[in-house]
Each structure stands twice: as structure tokens, then as C-alpha cells.
Design brief:
- By secondary structure, this protein is mainly alpha-helical.
- Among the domains are: 137 residues, Alpha Horseshoe (Serine Threonine Protein Phosphatase 5, Tetratricopeptide repeat), CATH 1.25.40; 87 residues, SET domain (Beta-clip-like, Beta Complex), CATH 2.170.270.10; 180 residues, Serine Threonine Protein Phosphatase 5, Tetratricopeptide repeat.
- 51% of the residues lie in helices and 10% in strands.
- A hairpin with a 2-residue loop joins strand 15 and strand 16.
- Bound molecules: zinc ion (4 copies).
- Keywords: Cytoplasm, Metal-binding, Methyltransferase, Nucleus, S-adenosyl-L-methionine, Transferase, Zinc, Zinc-finger.
- This is Protein-lysine N-methyltransferase SMYD4.
């Protein structure tokens, strides 16, 4: 996803392997990015471009006028089956393929408004009705949508508007002889009903305008840092020849304190599973599968069921017209015609392009001049550590007495006043690690960027009135070098933007505990977040709302301690050898964090979530290839290979059970899971992660069967395993507690529910702060529990 598609990757690697040794050497030993780029670029042949363009064509991102009727038909099928979410997404796909101001687009919007209506999304429904009308919704169908509009307005308590819509309907249609008698009657009946509804509502004293607005008050940094934008005054920027730039605490920090709140400088949505239809002309050219690209705004990453597509392509979709317009002005007018190519070349290449497009808006001439001078200057591209050598041991911008004179030392990425900001200058100064990447990788990046530059040039010559500043185009090579630098930076500096996606299981809606999982929504660059160093047991927690990253202390951090976050390899998810390997190959450093030191030097026993136990006495087994019982009185011993294969068999059975659960075969799932658990007890420790997985699946199955008590019992066992593995105040425990709270809530176990809600809230608050969806849900549950009579209530109030 981040890198180009495999076909292009292997094509380029093949090309590299066939290059004469002398040329390989030239590229391998060049330490200036400019040389790498120019050499590689000169090797890009027309046949390479043809190959790449053929791959790009596999992604159909244009508008296909035959697609909207197909998607509308498919959407109607879902609608009939009362799968309104499914229907909404298919109508959206139809909309994305329609040209503006066509009957197709207006019909799709109108149908989507109906699906949204049944999902109780009245505001969105109203917007879609307006859109349908704007794009020329047929006159004869108008009464239908206007009745729907009135229903929405009544439900939302906007009674005056509702009354007006009824009057419009009456004057425009009711009297029209064009309506068939039967239609006329239906309309009349509906009008009467709605008028009554308006009256009834009008009599109620209650107001319906109180919509839940999210409180963002606690979301702001208590005191913004003067030295680093987007950071709190509790941290300070330091620099050191070994560590590079890093942040330390300037005072004691409590768990949950917000330390960084930064909007991405650039982000690109991860399209999710979107296999190219490489074989043209296949019938399933119109994909009905749902991807992230269908559910999240391509600019602000908000979740939405009612996307608005770009007028020029079927790929880019947004949450609103505002986002569409902003994306167009900032970057999409250049990217729109390159959709297939960008999907082929991968997210890193896309981010590289978008970063340079965004740079245009920051005093473009200055940035470009800077690019020209820095890139033509070889020093800039030599190993970045040289920059650091000059400034070793100096604090940021500190004016100190050295050799009898005052010196002011700049930190890379800061402006002349020593301020570090979320801007292109900071992005440009992130380390590219040019000397650490393999020559093949550099060649792949350089060739991909060259191909992109050629396309930009071609697109530019087609339309002379381009919006890009001429300076960028006239110096296409400089632009290319800048993009290459970004591509190389991304391996170490790309930040995955994640979100929690709730997947409901089959079965009735109320009967389920939602199963949440973290998904990677987008990739972005956050210059301030990038200042943090890695630890396998970090003292912070990162989360995202839209494109904004927040970093909170996950534990107490003493004054002077370094602020650390985890780049991915966390000690509770990966063994020390795998972590070290991952960090070395991707980030080019050897981790010396406390967790790594402890595990490396003391050869600690395998963690309990991986431990086997004796099937004679239940004690933990110990040893290497042959394990023996830890109990003095027991002589049992067994080979690790045997246990490993036993575990694999079990894993397979659990997989089958989970599949049964997904397809709604609940009794069979319970049966198999109970057998699995029995099997697990014979050789796995009670805290083994596999045991946790089985308990979690059992909890879900019983929940789906409506047996709250059994479900809760199993979920509590799963919770214990998660606690042992991730720690009692970890975000993972927070999610388990959230599930458990939902269970007790749905089962009307009020004291248990209240207790669990509070525990979940406490844990999740530290990691996410008050604006998180789960926190909000918990608070709704709590207020409901505190002043509710014991009557059945659904989880989504
Ligand atoms: Zn948006
Ligand atoms: Zn477009
Ligand atoms: Zn480590
Ligand atoms: Zn034993």
C-alpha cells in the first residue's frame, strides 16, 4: 500500500539487476539526492512508462456513465432487504460515477436520502434531498422527496420549515391535474398525517433542538509551547548527536495530560483493499465491495455515509462540498487526472507529491528558492548527521558563552527565531537517511518519481492555464528531487493514522457486543510528532480525531525525562528479537529502551501470554527445545515443536469457530469453542493469548445468543488475559472494559454496568481524552444508568 504495486516493484528491481555494474555503482555511491535522481531519471525509457501506464489503467478511477444505473439497482436490492448502510454505500458509488446535473446523479441522491432516513440520519437525509433537487430531480417524483423532507423536519423539531414545505407541496402539486388520482390520494393522506404531526409536536413544550454536540474544551493544550507549535509547554525540544532531536518533560506530567495536538501537514487516505481490475472488460468492473475509500472523507478523514464525489473522477469522495472544494484548491486539481498512477505508485509517492503541492501555499517562492539552493548544494544531501555534528550538545537556540563569544545554534527545521512549526520547512528537514537505504530501493523511488514527473509534464502541456506556479514546473528536476527526498523520509517518518472501526456481527442489532478493531485509515506526516523518539514501552499514547494526532502521557513522566512513543514494535505485541530486527531494517537504529535491555540481558522467560503448561499437574513448563515441568514432584517433559504444532492446530480450530460465528451459526460456534477451550486448558497457561481469544469469541457468541450472563463471564476471563499482557491501564484493557460495560448495560445489570463504565472511562480517558467516541458513549450510558428506571434500553441512545 505504501510502496508501489508488486508488478512495478519487480519490474524496477529487474531493470536494476540488468544495469551495467558501472551505472549501478554510480547510483549506489552517489550521496547527493540530485545525482541519484538525475541518473535514475535518465534511465527511464518509454517502454517503462508504457508498462506503468498499463498497470495504472487497471485502477478505474474515471466516471463510467453505465455504472450509476447498475449501482442504483444493487442499492435498491439492499434497501429491500433493509440493509440501509449497504444500500447507502452502493448509491454513493453510483453518485461517484455520475456526471453532475444528470438524472442519474439526482436519482442516486434521492435514493440515498431514503436509506439515510431509515438510518435516522435526518440532517444528512435533508442534504441529499437538496442535492437531488440541485442536480435536476424529475418533477413528477418531487412529492416523494418533499414528503420525506417534511418528515425529517418534523422529527428534528424544525416545525416552521416543515409547515412551509407542506404549503409548498400543496400549492405546487396537490392541485396539479398531472398527478394520477391514486397518487393524489396518497399525497393527500400523507399531508394530513404530517400536518397532524406538526401540530402535536408544536403542543409539546419540549424542544428537539438539543442535539449532542461534542465538547472540545478539554481538547486544547493547556498552555501552548512557545518554541514548538502544536505542543504543550510541559515539553521542550533538545538535540543530541546520538539521539537527534527529541522532547523532554519540563515539569512533572500526570497520566492523561495532553502533550501534543497536531494536525497532519499532509495525509493521504489508505484506499484499503482495492485490487486493480487488471483484466479489462471483466463483468465485475463495478466493484460492490466497501472500502475505506467509500466510508471516509478523502480530505478530513471523517467517517460518513453520505459522500460527495469529485466532479472529475470517481475515486475522490468527501464528507461535504467544503472539503471537496478545499481538496481541489490545495492539491486535487493536479492529482485528479493522475488517480490510477498514484494508486499504482503507492501512498508514499502520493504523499511526496501532495507535500510539494502544499508547499506552494507557504510563501512558494521562498520555499522553491530554498529548494534550489539546498538541492544544488551537495552538502545538503550528504549524510544528515553532519548537520548534527556542528551543533552537538547545544540546546535549541540557546545563547551561551562558548569560546568567549555568544553563539546561536539553529536546530534543523526551526525558523530563524528558533521556532519549530508544523510547516514545509520542518517537513523538508526530516531525516531522509539517504545513506541507509538500499540502492535498489533508492532506484525504485527515483524511477517512480521520474515517471510521475513525466506525467505531470504531459498533463501540464495539455492545459496551459495550469494553477501550479510556473517555477515548480520550469524546474521539474528540482521538484523531482524534493519528491524523492520525501519518499525516502517516509520510511522512518510516516505516521499511520488509525481509527477504531466497530464491526457488528450478524444477528439482531441489539443483541451484539460490538467488536472493535484498529484500522489504518491514512498515512500522514506530523513534523512535531516526528520529534519523538521510540521506545518499545512508551510513556505516551497516540490517537487521532480526523487528521489531528493527539499525544497524551500514558503514565507519570518526571521532569527531565524523555517523552517517548512507540513506532509500532511494542513489547507486549512482539518479542525482543523481532522488534530489534524491525527497528533496524525500517528505522536504522538499535533500540536500547528499558524493555529491550531487560529482555536482551536477562534472557527473561517467555511471557505468560506465550507460556505452555504441564498437562499432568498444570504447572508452567520451562526450558528451550525440550520443556520440563516446573513442579518438583512432576517429571513431565515435552518437546517445544510438539507444543507448537498443537498450538497451530488449535489456532486453526478457533479460526473455524470464528467463521461459524460470523456466518451466524451460533450453536455450532459455541460447541466448537468449548471444545477448543478444553483443549487449550490441557497445555496452555491460563493467561495465554490464545485462551483470551477463545474466551472473547465465546463472549461474542453468547452475546449474539442473548445470554448476557454467560457472555459477561467469558469476557471477564478474556479481560484478565489482556490485563496480564498489556497492563491494567493499557488502551487494550480500555477496549475490553468498554465491551464489558456494553454487555452489562444491555443485560440491565445496573451496578455492574456502572462500575465497569467508570473503570472503562478512567482507562480510556488517559489515552484518548474526552472527545473520543467510546468515552462519549460511556458517558451516555452512565447518565442513562444513573437516572433510568429499569426498562430495556439499547446501547445507541
Ligand atoms: Zn471532509
Ligand atoms: Zn477527481
Ligand atoms: Zn526497545
Ligand atoms: Zn507437571
Amino acid at each position: 500500500m505504501d510502496l508501489p504495486v508488486d508488478e512495478w516493484k519487480s519490474y524496477v528491481f529487474q531493470k536494476w539487476s540488468l544495469l551495467p555494474k558501472s551505472i549501478q555503482d554510480t547510483i549506489s555511491t552517489a550521496d547527493a539526492l540530485r545525482d541519484i535522481f538525475l541518473h535514475s531519471s535518465s534511465l527511464l525509457q518509454p517502454e517503462d512508462e508504457i508498462f506503468l501506464n498499463n498497470l495504472s489503467r487497471g485502477y478505474f478511477v474515471g466516471k463510467d456513465p453505465n455504472a450509476p444505473p447498475f449501482y442504483r439497482e444493487e442499492g435498491n436490492k439492499k434497501f429491500q432487504k433493509k440493509d440501509y448502510v449497504g444500500a447507502t454505500v452502493l448509491y454513493s458509488k453510483g453518485i461517484s460515477h455520475s456526471r453532475p446535473h444528470t438524472v442519474d446523479i439526482s436519482l442516486c441522491y434521492a435514493n440515498r436520502s431514503a436509506a439515510l432516513f431509515y438510518l435516522d440520519q435526518y440532517e444528512m437525509c435533508l442534504k441529499d434531498i437538496t442535492r437531488a433537487q440541485m442536480h435536476g430531480y424529475p418533477e413528477r417524483l418531487q412529492p416523494k422527496v418533499m414528503l420525506r423532507k417534511t418528515e425529517c423536519l418534523v422529527t428534528l423539531g424544525r416545525l416552521q420549515e416543515a409547515g412551509q414545505t407542506i404549503r409548498d407541496l400543496e400549492s405546487n402539486f396537490a392541485a396539479k391535474p398531472t398527478l394520477a388520482a391514486a397518487q393524489f390520494q396518497i399525497l393527500q393522506r400523507n399531508l394530513c398525517r404530517l400536518k397532524r404531526k406538526v401540530q402535536e409536536k408544536g403542543n409539546l413544550t419540549e424542544t428537539y433542538t438539543a442535539t449532542l454536540t461534542k465538547t472540545f474544551e478539554d481538547m486544547d493544550l493547556r498552555e501552548e509551547n512557545e518554541q514548538i507549535s502544536s505542543a504543550s509547554s510541559s515539553v521542550s525540544l533538545c538535540i543530541d548527536p546520538l539521539k537527534g532531536r527529541y522532547l523532554i518533560a519540563t515539569k512533572d506530567i500526570l497520566p492523561g495530560e495532553l502533550l501534543v495536538k497536531e494536525d497532519a501537514f499532509v495525509s493521504v487516505l489508505n484506499p484499503g483493499e482495492m485490487p486493480p481490475g487488471l483484466h479489462h472488460g471483466l463483468e465485475n468492473k463495478w466493484d460492490t465491495r466497501v472500502t475505506n475509500g467509500d466510508l471516509y472523507c478523502h480530505r478530513c478523514l471523517k467517517h460518513t455515509l453520505a459522500t460527495v464525489p469529485c466532479d472529475g473522477c470517481s475515486y475522490a469522495k468527501y464528507c461535504s462540498n467544503e472539503c471537496m472544494q478545499q481538496a481541489w484548491d490545495l492539491y486535487h486539481q493536479i492529482e485528479c487526472s493522475l488517480g490510477g498512477l498514484l494508486l499504482t505508485l503507492g501512498i508514499f509517492c502520493h504523499i511526496a507529491l501532495r507535500s510539494t503541492l502544499l508547499a506552494r501555499f507557504e510563501d512558494a517562492s521562498k520555499v522553491i528558492r530554498k529548494l534550489c539552493s539546498e538541492i544544488s548544494n551537495k552538502d545538503m544531501c550528504s549524510p544528515e548527521s553532519e548537520n548534527l555534528v556542528q551543533i552537538l550538545n547545544y540546546d535549541l537556540g540557546e545563547e551561551g558563552e562558548r569560546h568567549g563569544k555568544t553563539v546561536k545554534i539553529p536546530v534543523p527545521g526551526c525558523d530563524i527565531n528558533g521556532k519549530y512549526e508544523n510547516n514545509y520547512n520542518a517537513v523538508f528537514n526530516l531525516l531522509a537517511h539517504t545513506e541507509n537505504h538500499s540502492p535498489e530501493y533508492k532506484f525504485l523511488c527515483a524511477l517512480s518519481v521520474s515517471a510521475l514527473c513525466r506525467q505531470l509534464e504531459a498533463a501540464d502541456s495539455k492545459k496551459p492555464e495550469t494553477a501550479a506556479p510556473p517555477a515548480l514546473y520550469s524546474e521539474l528536476n528540482i521538484w523531482g528531487v524534493a519528491m524523492l527526498k520525501h519518499m525516502l523520509q517516509l520510511q522512518c517518518n510516516a505516521q499511520a493514522i488509525t481509527t477504531i472501526q466497530e464491526t457488528a456481527l450478524s444477528g439482531s442489532k441489539e443483541n451484539n457486543v460490538s467488536n472493535s478493531r484498529q484500522i489504518r485509515l491514512a498515512t500522514g506526516i506530523f513534523p512535531v510528532v516526528s520529534l519523538l523518539n521510540h521506545s518499545c514501552s512508551p510513556n505516551t499514547s497516540v490517537s487521532f480525531i480526523s487528521t489531528v494526532a493527539t499525544i497524551r502521557a500514558s503514565q507519570q513522566i518526571g521532569k527531565g525525562q524523555e517523552i517517548l512513543h512507540c513506532y509500532g514494535p511494542h513489547y507486549s505485541r512482539m518479542g525482543v528479537a523481532d522488534r530489534q530486527q524491525k527497528l533496524r531494517s525500517q528505522y536504522f537504529f538499535d533500540c536500547g529502551c528499558p524493555a529491550c535491555q531487560k529482555e536482551k540481558h536477562r534472557a527473561v522467560a517467555r511471557p505468560r501470554w506465550e507460556a505452555f503448561c504441564c498437562n499432568q499437574c498444570g504447572e508452567l513448563l520451562q526450558g528451550g527445545d525440550v520443556l520440563s515441568c516446573g513442579s518438583m514432584s512432576c517429571t513431565e517433559s515435552v518437546s517445544r515443536d510438539h507444543l507448537t504444532s498443537q498450538l497451530q492446530d488449535l489456532q486453526q480450530q478457533v479460526g473455524i469457530a470464528q467463521e461459524l460465528l460470523r456466518s451466524g451459526k451460533l450453536e455450532q460456534a459455541v460447541q466448537l469453542l468449548l471444545e477448543c477451550r478444553h483443549d487449550a486448558e490441557s497445555f496452555l497457561s491460563a493467561e495465554h493469548s490464545m485462551v483470551g481469544e477463545i474466551e472473547d469469541a465465546l463472549a461474542q457468541t453468547y452475546a449474539a445468543l442473548g445470554d448476557w450472563q454467560k457472555s459477561a463471564t467469558h469476557l471477564q476471563k478474556s479481560l484478565r488475559v489482556v490485563e496480564v499482557r498489556h497492563g491494567p491501564s493499557s488502551v487494550e484493557v480500555g477496549h475490553e472494559l468498554f465491551k464489558l460495560a456494553q454487555l452489562f448495560f444491555n443485560g440491565f445489570a445496573i451496578p455492574e454496568a456502572l462500575n465497569t463504565v467508570e473503570r472503562a472511562e478512567k482507562v480510556l480517558m488517559v489515552h484518548y481524552g474526552p472527545c473520543n467516541d467510546e468515552i462519549q458513549e460511556l458517558q451516555k450510558m452512565k447518565s442513562c444508568l444513573l437516572n433510568s428506571p429499569p426498562i430495556p434500553l439499547g446501547p445507541s441512545l
